[in-house]
Structure formats: structure tokens, C-alpha cells
Write a structure and sequence with these properties.
Helix 2 packs antiparallel against helix 3 and helix 5 packs antiparallel against helix 6. With 615 residues, this protein is α+β, with helices and mostly antiparallel strands. A 5-stranded mixed β-sheet has the order 3-5-6-8-7, with helices on one face.
């Protein structure tokens, strides 16, 4: 029974210890997050050694839970604290392991944070050029981080003082500008404090003492509002620098002594060396060579302890690993550069090929268009030749009849024995054939002028109703048919913007054409408004009509319904050209079967309304 009670007690204690351990880990993790968010390595509530211990305990848990950003930030903090504490060997080993893990994971943020840790290890080993290279790589590494991770800003604050010591002022200006553009600087008092402390050295270096004093006063305000133990060494060292710059050497020595006296012997590394070296130089300036010599001896001893053989081996191993991986990164960057270069060249070549293809296609299209135009020109030339031949054939045929009549009846008039009545009839026949010949010639001239645009149109406002009455009266006087020529409309007058002579010519051609094929019945001219913009004309006869198969060709030149009838076959072609130049359209009504009906529309007010138009 006692044995069973002992087991229960042991189990209870184990559970209690486990729960207590978990609670402590949660507390420690919360404290670490608070320090990281505040950009502080330690504070009065979390001493340096405690933070190192907590970081070592919690790192495996973070790695196991795959919280890799927090894992690497914690490891970088631990490396930094080892460096501050003077544990250079441990700092080097942790930085190397951290970097190797980041490389194995191919984790960009881990590589950048490891570069900062390596820079800290180099700096604390007094290897300034290597430290500068590591900080540069961390700052410029292509990685996106959360808003509260200010590793770049912290790296710049560590890099700038080293660059000033090395005399690289152009680079200092570049990184100061980069730092001031960071949004995190506006909200973090810690970053502002260290920026101001760094500015004291910066302005002293530039011999701008007033600005150095202003920076020191602003830094003092932050220090007095929050006396963090981490601030002490940096603030008092800045005070010493300022008083040395203004010639208050004893005051400067007091501040340097305060800093050196506060750094424990076991933590005397690079920060101690920096302040001690500054004090020794000031003692030389004050001609206190004895104290300066003792201090130089101390500096030499500390330096030798930093670069002992074991440290040298470790740092050389770290340097080799770092340079090897840097070479890999540089090779990767170079491979990417070559790839993108080849891709760019490929795109340029593709663009050139596409351009040439489009150019060739465009040229081919032009060749096809030119070939089509050439073929069209050839067809037009052949059509022109056929038209010319047809014109000559038709004109020779049409002109022969009136010329024969003129010649025959003119010879007949020379006969002395003809009576007066016969002479009168001969004269009438000669006059009719003369008029017919002139009409043939006028038609050819009108067609030619309309085609090449030389026919003049004189536009103006005219009464369409009056024009129609005149046309009907004229045709009634010259018609050679018994059919009635009529005019029908519901309007008394209608103002049209037109060429009255060309409109009369069009109407007379249509009416005369109707008289040729309407020996009996009627021929009716009608007009009415089709819309507010157009007028509708029609010429309807009760003659023989036009077969459907010939209606599509009726407006072609030299097209004659009756080959035995007089005329050139140009009248309807002329009508079509006239109405199209005016802005209208003419057609034959295929639905009318009691004869033939020609229709056309005429605009009331054509666009432009020029008073005179060359058509």
C-alpha cells in the first residue's frame, strides 16, 4: 500500500513539474517576444544570461512547432548576446550552425538573419571587413518579413559605425538614407535612440558639432524616459565623444571611464576595446603617455584573447562555410542573370521573328491586293476596250441611219421637179434625223462627262411640281405615240435643292423611253413626299413592259430592249448617274406587271447644300 502511494506521489510530482516547466516556457517565450518586438537584446526584467538560457531552451520547441521566423530571430538574438558577453567561441559556433540550418532549409529569412549573426561574430572577433560584408548581405538579401521584424534596420545600425571607422562615408550616406525611409523607425523608440547615438558620431566626423549636440539631447530624452541597461554603454560613450569633440577632455574621460568600469571583466570584447582605444588616444592627446601605455597593453591582451588559436580556427571555418555558401548564392544569381539574359534575348529574337512574319504577311497582303488591283485594272481595261468597241459598233450603226436619211433627202431636194409638199416633207425628215443625230452625240458626251466628273451641276432651290408640269408639256409636244402623258400629285408645290436642268433631263429621258414602248394607253409621272428628307418620283406606263430576266441589266450601257428601236441604249445609264450624283437612287419596280414602272428618290436637302457642285 505504501509502495502504491509512493508511485502516485511520484507521478503527481512529475505532472506538476511538467506543467510548471510548460508554464515557465510560455513565460520565457512571452518575454523573448516582448524583447524582440521592442528591438532590445535584454532589459532590467530579463538579464543577458537569462535571455541566453531561455533562448537555448525554447529554440528546439520553436523548431519542432515549425515557427521558423521566430526560431531564427531567437537564435540571432542569442548569438548577439554571446558576442556582447564575450563568449566569442560560442557566438561563432551558434552563428555557423544557424547559417548551415538556413542553407539546408533554403529559408531566405533564415539566411538573412544568419548573415546578421555572422556579422556580429566577425565584429566581435575584430574582423571588420568580413563583418561589413555579412551585414551588407543581410541588408540586401531579397526576403519579405513581417512588419515587426526590423532585422535590416538593426543591421544598418551595426554597419554604419563600422563603415565610419573604415572611412567609407559614401556608403554611410546610402545606408542612413535607407534607414530613415523605414516606417519602423517612426514607431520604435529603441531604433530612434540608437540612430541618434550613431548620428552623434556621424556629425562629429563631419565636424557639425551643433547637429551632434542636438542628436545627443534627443537621445538623452529617450534615455531619461526609459533607462534601459542596454542603452547605458552606448549613451555614455556618445557623451564622451561629444565632450572630446568640444574640448572638454576631462569630462570625456569621465564618461569613458564610466563605460569601461561598468563592463565586467569576462565581457570585455569588442565594445570594451572600442571605448578603451578611444580613451587611450585621448590620453595620448593629453600627453598622459604612461596611462595610455597601460591601456594599450590591456587592449593588446584582450585582443590576443579574442583571436586565440581555437577562435581563429572556428572563425576560419565559419568564414569558409560562409564564403562557400555565398559563392553558391552568387552562382545562383549569376545563373538567374544568364537565364533572364537568354530569356530576354529569346524574347527579342521572338519579337524580331514575329515582326518579320507580320511584315512578310503584310507585304504578301499588299502583293495580293496589288495583284487583285492589277487584275481589276486588267478587267477594267478589257471592259473599256469592249465598251469602246461596243460604242463604236453601236454609234456607227445608230449614226448610219440618220446620216443616210440626211444624205438621201438632201440629194432629193436638189431635184428641180419636186413639188412644194414633197420638199416640206423632205425638210421635216431632215430636221428629225438631225435632231436624232444631235441627241445621240449629246448622250455620249453626257455619259463621258458624268463618268469622269466633268459635268457641272448648278444647285439651287426649285419647285419640283413646276418642273414636272414643264416636262410633261414638253414630252406631249414631241411624243410619237397615241398614249397619254399624264402628271399626278397631291401637292401644289415642293421646294427641292436640286439642279433643275439635270432633273428635267432625267425625267424627259424616262418619259421619252416610255413613249417608245407604249403606243396606246397612258404614261403617268407621279410625285409625293416619302419622308421629311426624301421625295419619291415614278414614271409608270401601260406598254409592253420589261421581262424579269432583263430588268437587272436595264441600266447597263448600250442595253436596248428592242434592238430595232432608235437610240444608243445610254439613256437609262445617264439617268442613273444623274440621280446618284444628286444623292438619290433609281430602280425598276419588278412587282408592277401592267407595263413598266421606273422609280427614284430625290433628297429634299442634301448634306452640304453647296450652291454649286462639280460632279
Amino acid at each position: 500500500m505504501i509502495k502504491k502511494a509512493s508511485y502516485i506521489l511520484i507521478i503527481s510530482l512529475s505532472i506538476s513539474l511538467l506543467l510548471h516547466s510548460e508554464n515557465r516556457n510560455e513565460d520565457h517565450l512571452s518575454t523573448l517576444k516582448r524583447l524582440i518586438d521592442a528591438n532590445l537584446p535584454y532589459d532590467s526584467l530579463a538579464p543577458m544570461d537569462s535571455v541566453i538560457s531561455w533562448g537555448e531552451q525554447i529554440s528546439p520547441m520553436l523548431e519542432e512547432e515549425n515557427q521558423m521566423e521566430l526560431f531564427f530571430v531567437t537564435k540571432q538574438l542569442v548569438v548577439h548576446l554571446y558576442s556582447l558577453r564575450g563568449s566569442i567561441g560560442r557566438s561563432i559556433d551558434e552563428a555557423r550552425r544557424m547559417y548551415e540550418k538556413a542553407i539546408d532549409m533554403d529559408y531566405d529569412l533564415g539566411i538573412a538573419l544568419s548573415s546578421v549573426a555572422i556579422g556580429n561574430a566577425y565584429y566581435c572577433s575584430n574582423m571588420l571587413p568580413e563583418a561589413i560584408a555579412s551585414y551588407r548581405e543581410a541588408i540586401h538579401y531579397p526576403v519579405t518579413v513581417s512588419d515587426d521584424n526590423c532585422f535590416r534596420e538593426r543591421a544598418i545600425l551595426q554597419l554604419v559605425p563600422i563603415l565610419m571607422k573604415e572611412g567609407k562615408m559614401e556608403e554611410v550616406e546610402t545606408y542612413r538614407t535607407m534607414f530613415m525611409k523605414s516606417a519602423a523607425v517612426q514607431t520604435s523608440k529603441v531604433l530612434q535612440f540608437f540612430a541618434l547615438v550613431t548620428d552623434v558620431s556621424y556629425y562629429i566626423h563631419r565636424n557639425e558639432i551643433e547637429k551632434a549636440h542636438d542628436s545627443l539631447l534627443k537621445a538623452e530624452q529617450i534615455y531619461e524616459s526609459d533607462r534601459q541597461p542596454y542603452f547605458y554603454d552606448f549613451f555614455y560613450y556618445a557623451q564622451g565623444q561629444y565632450y572630446e569633440a568640444i574640448g572638454e577632455y576631462q569630462q570625456a574621460l569621465q564618461y569613458y571611464d564610466d563605460v569601461l568600469g561598468k563592463i565586467p571583466r569576462k565581457m570585455r570584447s569588442i565594445n570594451y576595446l572600442q571605448v578603451a582605444y578611444t580613451k587611450a588616444n585621448l590620453l595620448v592627446k593629453l600627453d598622459n603617455k604612461v596611462d595610455a601605455a597601460h591601456l594599450y597593453d590591456e587592449i593588446s591582451a584582450i585582443t590576443d584573447s579574442i583571436v586565440v588559436p581555437s577562435y581563429a580556427h572556428r572563425i576560419n571555418s565559419l568564414r569558409a562555410s560562409f564564403q562557400e555558401n555565398r559563392m553558391k548564392i552568387e552562382n545562383k544569381v549569376e545563373a538567374n542573370r544568364i537565364f533572364f539574359g537568354e530569356l530576354l534575348i529569346g524574347l527579342v529574337l521572338l519579337t524580331v521573328i514575329v515582326y518579320l512574319a507580320m511584315h512578310i504577311r503584310k507585304q504578301n497582303k499588299k502583293i495580293v491586293e496589288s495583284t487583285a488591283l492589277l487584275e481589276q485594272s486588267k478587267q477594267e481595261a478589257e471592259n473599256a476596250m469592249r465598251t469602246k468597241s461596243l460604242l463604236l459598233s453601236n454609234m456607227s450603226h445608230e449614226i448610219r441611219t440618220p446620216l443616210s436619211a440626211l444624205s438621201g433627202f438632201s440629194n432629193l431636194l436638189t431635184e428641180q421637179e419636186l413639188d412644194a409638199e414633197t420638199r416640206r416633207q423632205c425638210g421635216e425628215i431632215i430636221q428629225q434625223n438631225s435632231d436624232l443625230l444631235l441627241k445621240l452625240i449629246d448622250d455620249v458626251i453626257d455619259l463621258s462627262n458624268l463618268e469622269i466628273g466633268n459635268m457641272e451641276f448648278n444647285f439651287g432651290y426649285h419647285d419640283a411640281i413646276a418642273i414636272c408640269h414643264n416636262v410633261v408639256d414638253t414630252v406631249n409636244k414631241v411624243k410619237q405615240t397615241q398614249a397619254d402623258v399624264l402628271f399626278e400629285t397631291s401637292m401644289d408645290s415642293l421646294e427641292l435643292y436640286t439642279d433643275d436642268s439635270r432633273l428635267q433631263q432625267l425625267l424627259i429621258n424616262l418619259l421619252i423611253n416610255a413613249t417608245k414602248f407604249t403606243p396606246q394607253g397612258s404614261i403617268t409621272l407621279e410625285i409625293h413626299k416619302q419622308s421629311e428628307t426624301d421625295v419619291f418620283f415614278s414614271v409608270t406606263d401601260t406598254g409592253c413592259g420589261i421581262p424579269l430576266e432583263k430588268q437587272s441589266k436595264i441600266f447597263n450601257r448600250f442595253e436596248k430592249l428592242n434592238e430595232s428601236a432608235q437610240g444608243t441604249g445610254l439613256g437609262l445609264s445617264i439617268c442613273q448617274l444623274i440621280i446618284e450624283r444628286i444623292g438619290g437612287k433609281i430602280w425598276i419596280d419588278s412587282s408592277y406587271t401592267s407595263g413598266c414602272r421606273f422609280c427614284f428618290v430625290h433628297p429634299i436637302n442634301p448634306v452640304g447644300e453647296e450652291k454649286e457642285v462639280q460632279a
